[in-house]
Write a structure and sequence with these properties.
- There is one protein chain.
- By secondary structure, the protein is of the alpha+beta class.
- The chain has three helices and seven strands.
- It is 14% helix and 32% strand.
- Strands 1, 2, 3, 4, 5, 6 and 7 form a seven-stranded antiparallel beta sheet that branches.
- The longest helix has 12 residues, at 48-59.
- It starts with 15 loop residues before the first helix and ends in a 5-residue tail after the last strand.
């Protein structure tokens, strides 16, 4: 089990165990519930990164998004790449126009369904987010709460 996100250093890159633990990220609900568009499966042929970016469009309203400009996207497969049953995509945006938040990191997790067939799909499981504080005692730290 990984340490809470608050205890992590200011590294730009989450490690595998941090990405695996959804408790390191604040769970995101859309309008207080799961949106049906988010629940639509993605064909495996679309690629896991493209699938995650499409899902992130659901939570990033146009007024608040930075045109989907992510400066870092990482993919972790569990238990491993060759026998993937779960995928976690971490997409990060930095350079935000916010004096208290330096960057935001989204975690999008998927479950592989019908993995042994040509009709395999990635089914969305959960969204989460972390923020990197720009000032105060949490400056430079990735947290799942609010920067003060």
């Amino acid at each position: 089990m990984s340490a809470p996100a608050q205890a992590k250093n200011s590294s730009q890159y989450p490690n595998r165990s941090e990405a695996a633990n959804p408790d390191n990220f604040k769970r995101i609900l859309i309008n207080g519930r799961v949106v049906s568009m988010a629940s639509v499966p993605c064909p495996i042929s679309d690629g896991i990164i493209n699938c995650a970016l499409k899902k992130l469009e659901v939570i990033n309203e146009p007024a608040f998004s930075i045109d989907g400009d992510y400066d870092l996207v990482q993919v972790f497969y569990y238990p491993n790449t060759d026998q993937a049953k779960t995928a976690v995509v971490i997409a990060q945006q930095s350079g935000l126009m916010n004096d208290s938040v330096r960057a935001i990191r989204y975690r999008v997790s998927f479950q592989l369904e019908d993995g042994g067939t040509s009709a395999a799909t990635w089914n969305w499981v959960q969204y989460g987010e972390q923020v990197q504080c720009a000032r105060g005692k949490m400056a430079g730290k990735w947290i799942k709460g609010r920067c003060l």
